[in-house]
């Protein structure tokens, strides 16, 4: 597994090994021991999510869950392609307010490991984009939070394809980060 730093502490871009042959390829997309050996992470995942977005330009985000259901996520794309975004909102982090974007696609097999204390979202670059992600805490409707995708505090570059008509009501009505009682703090490793 290839592990690439992102310049934001704790946020990692991962590329699991693929074994290609005449049939196609095989890949262990998640192996707890491999991930731990490559990164030192001991995250325990308790929920797997899978979403389909039919139309190119569909944006979901920016989301997180508050403690006690804060979630680390291991995100990959199983169909089509997305531009995947993580924003560091940990008070005291040297990269507070910074974001990173990566193309995750079925073809490149890249994964993003997003620790707790980040907002996460994505925009689809193809029709029928499928996002698959593991979460370290179960879903909690009470702790679920959406922050405006276009909050000027971080100015994420979503590209030119955002289809505002496809936003969920939750995302359309989301507050800015400054309106959110942000519970996350940075703990240096
Ligand atoms: C996220 C989630 C949603 N749901 C339900 C709630 C709702 O009725 C329906 C759709 O939920 P949402 O509109 O929140 O789905 P979506 O906008 O895809 O939310 C997801 O976005 C990405 C960016 C993330 O990072 C995820 O953690 C999650 O927040 O599914 C669950 O039952 N379990 C879950 O874990």
TrEMBL record:
The active site is at 63 (proton acceptor), 133 (proton donor). It catalyses: dTDP-4-dehydro-6-deoxy-alpha-D-glucose = dTDP-4-dehydro-beta-L-rhamnose. The keyword Isomerase applies. It holds the Pfam family dTDP_sugar_isom. GO terms for molecular function: dTDP-4-dehydrorhamnose 3,5-epimerase activity. It is an enzyme of class 5 (isomerase). Gene3D superfamilies: Jelly Rolls (2.60.120.10). InterPro entries: RmlC-like (IPR000888), RmlC-like_jellyroll (IPR014710), RmlC_Cupin_sf (IPR011051). Its EC number is 5.1.3.13. One of its GO terms (biological process) is polysaccharide biosynthetic process. Catalyzes the epimerization of the C3' and C5'positions of dTDP-6-deoxy-D-xylo-4-hexulose, forming dTDP-6-deoxy-L-lyxo-4-hexulose. Belongs to the dTDP-4-dehydrorhamnose 3,5-epimerase family. This is dTDP-4-dehydrorhamnose 3,5-epimerase. It comes from Palleronia caenipelagi. The lineage of its organism: Bacteria, Pseudomonadati, Pseudomonadota, Alphaproteobacteria, Rhodobacterales.
